[in-house]
Amino acid sequence: MQLGVFLNRQGAVEVAVEAERLGYAMALVPEGFRSDAVSVLGAVAARTERIGLASGVMQIPGRPPVMAALTAATLDQLSGGRFRLGLGVSNPDVSLGWYGVPFERPLERTREYVDVVRLALTGEPVRYPGKHFRLPPEGTDEAAHLIAAAVRKDLPVLLAGVGKRSLELAGEIADGWIGVFAPPWRIAESLEHVKTGRERVGLGLDGFEVMPSISIGLGDDLETAAEPLRHYYANFLGLGSKEKSIYYALAVRMGFEEQAAEVHRLRSEGDRAGAARAVPLEFIDQTALLGTPERIARRMAEYAAAGVTVLGLTLLAPTVDEQLATVRAAARALELAGV
């Protein structure tokens, strides 16, 4: 198992450079509340040489598939072939509320989206008669053709997913999976569904990348270590409606329904500080790396045993210096884990 790091906009370049020096395998950039992924990735690509780069993840509703392919090809060229395209459908309320894109039939939409991306990355004209994406549409014969970008048709595509069917789809059509809020036992459980998808196309897990996003907090006691993570967790648990939120549903499945409901209520009432305080420490501890390097090392060993190939650390420390200290401590913990 290797380490990756999910970068914040603040300090992204400094952290990526240090992670590269420490031997991290990947630097990933999410998008949503804080920034888009593409701008940060461009800056990081210009200042690094070896570390792999990925969107973690680009939001499918936020850009058409041909533009996602063009962006991926450009970032891959700028980084010297180091880029992986991570994609996700986001949350139903974000899809509609932020981008005006309906969330209905997200798996069908994702399958077609990846089809179009891969077709565009061949460098051939994009002609696709899908249900959700028909290119070119009626009224024009102008097909997209990425003749201006250096394309790599085998550029890896990673999919985010939580539910059984989305995990199977990732196994079937993607080169890797990006998970979230996943304790080691859920990684192993999720990979069983990924295997089902891989088997449909006659493949195993060899070469398939397993990259969960795992928050990390340092401290001699768990409460102190968890404190910088609380607002992040409250944002996800309180996002949109309880009935539609994949993150809320995940907390319920893990046995935290009552606490998740309280977090959601407080956030919906505008009490963000109260919502952060209401996130149960046990939920954070199950789904994050908390404590001293020695304690974190033991958890890393559990993630390696569960099948993780790149353990993606989500940094939530408030300052760049603290983020740098975290990536160094995590590298030390990996050495202690001996995996």
Description:
The chain is of the alpha/beta class. Helices cover 49% and strands 15% of the residues. The chain is built from 15 helices and 13 strands. The strands form two sheets. Strands 1, 2, 3, 4, 5, 8, 9, 10, 11, 12 and 13 form an eleven-stranded parallel sheet that branches. The longest helix has 18 residues. The protein is globular and about 60 Å long. 49% of the residues are buried.
Give a quick summary of the entry.
With 339 residues, the chain is α/β, with parallel strands linked by helices. The chain is built from 15 helices and 13 strands. The strands form 2 sheets. Strands 1, 2, 3, 4, 5, 8, 9, 10, 11, 12 and 13 form an 11-stranded parallel beta sheet that branches. Strands 6-7 form a two-stranded antiparallel ribbon.
